[in-house]
Amino acid sequence: ATYTCKMVGRASSGAAGGRGKLDMSATFGATFSAEVLGAAAGSLSGKALSEAEGMGDAGAVGFVMRALGEEDARTRDACVAAAVLMDSSALMPKLEHYLDTDGDGENDHDRADRTAAGIALVMGGIAERAGDAAMAKKVADRCTALLVCPNDMVQVAVANGLASCVRVLGEGEGKAMLEGFLAVSANGALAQGYGLAGVVKGLKTRSLVAHGVLAKLEEKAGSKKDQGARELAVASYGCLARVLGHTFEPYTVKILPTVLAKCGDKVPEVRAASEGALKACTECLCPQGLRHIFSLLLRELEDRGTAWQSKVALLQCMESWVSKEEGQMGRAMQGVVPAVCETLNDTKPEVCAAAQSLLRCFGERLIKSPEMKGMVPALLDAFFSPMEKTVPCVDQLMDVTFINAVDGPCLSLMVPVLSRALKEKRMENRRKASLVVGNMCGLVTDGAALVRYAPSLVPELLLCVKDSNPEMRQYGASALAALLKGMASAHLSARFDELETQLEQLQKDMVSESEETKRKGEKGIQELVDIAMGQATKTNHSEADIEADMQKMKLEEEEKKAAKAKAAEDAKAQAAAEAAKEEAAKPIPGKGFCETSCRVCPQCALALEEQAARDEQKKKDDEKQARLDAKKKAEEEKLKALKKFQEQQKAALAAQGKKKKK
Question: Which of 104-113, 299-308, 442-451 has the weakest average pLDDT?
Fold first, then answer.
């Protein structure tokens, strides 16, 4: 059908230029007329044209009128392009008749709307192709009258048809039309807004500033008493975004605060127009433009002065972006999630409900890791009920075996929960959170994603490193080293291999009994972490930077080896000096006291020991000699007594002998 419409237009252009009648058989051949056109036209008009050997202007016009109402957008677009090239003398009366009779008896309202939209585009295209100011003025009036149709598709098409007419009428007539559409009318704010957008498109986007359109709309939006002016202003913003598309993108940053503020207007009509304008303005942004306005939108979301209706509209608008711009929303989650979490405590239940819905949408649409998909309900419960659900969520995370890579969206949901768990009073909860952080960081492929969360994790892990419990210090050091290594670029990861060992060494100094050593240990840990943070958080590395870092690492490695070799030599020399000193200070036996007889030096101590040994030996010798002398004296006394006894015996025997002789 699309191909048929294009060919009809091409053949009609030739007929208008020379023959005056569209001869389908001569143009396409009998086979095309009987088979292809018959099948396509049968589906479009409900009548088989297989018997037709040719098609006159009336047949082509009927064909176009049916094709303009088709559901397939490609068919309608091709038909519009074809109809613009056809002979307007036969087509224009049919188009005008359709509008004058309000659909020419069409009962299908959707088809009637699609046909009306196509007619507006065709009439505008014909007027622009003809270059006739009178025709363009007539078509512009018809388009203006058609703006009251409440269908957005029709109004956008009418605006585009009006733009085609303005290109023919010129800037003077276009400026006058601008003034008319900038005034509040009974046609409604949307009708006026689409008319304004069509004229601006015809005059080019520069007319927004050149003719003061934005300034006048801003003035109307700031009107406190005229609610119609406010509604017209915000409705016009939305219409401009829908009709101008990406060409309106540079102006959205300026008007978005106004549109957001009017989402909280007291008048329901103004609020409704503002919500539609907010959606339209954000839809016209390219992915880069959407990322550019995130900071502005988040400031409005966090501002306590923002009306709750504006917050609800903004949250709902952000939810609609998730399915359209998953990549940008995934990268923006790091800043969006904390701001959305703040609104979970809002006093208005509508704001809380919108925030919860947005977070659920994040979890369902943006979390791609199979392991984390199963954890989304627990993580969301920890967001909604942090006091009761944080610890159970960490317990479940402990049971997760991370296999797939952990990306930015996963981190945006995990890190706030883990950061909160690291602040728990119970050491067991902090230990579990540290373990999860260490396991998680090992699977993060994009170090830049971790860098964004360093301010919320590093201070808490540093407190764990300095904890009084040795087990907590060990887990904290392991998690902090894994986090810093995960943040660093691949070519810098070698620098962090020994970080955990260095932290553990400084932790030993930190728990020393010496206050000075303890202070040095704490200061060393802080300096080591600061240096590692500076290296790890550097995300933009050019080839020259990488080469410079590699050269620096090579020099550092050589310096480390040289320092290690020098330290070994110094230790060896120091050991030899100490040995020589000990040898020189070794006391000489038999030398006696030193020159000063200090009685405290090693020589005097040895002399005292020798003197004590001599005295002890002399005492032993004296005791032995005394024992020998006593023994000798006893033997002499015994011998003397024996001798005396013998003498007495001898004398007695002598006396006895004398007595016998007598």
Answer: 442-451
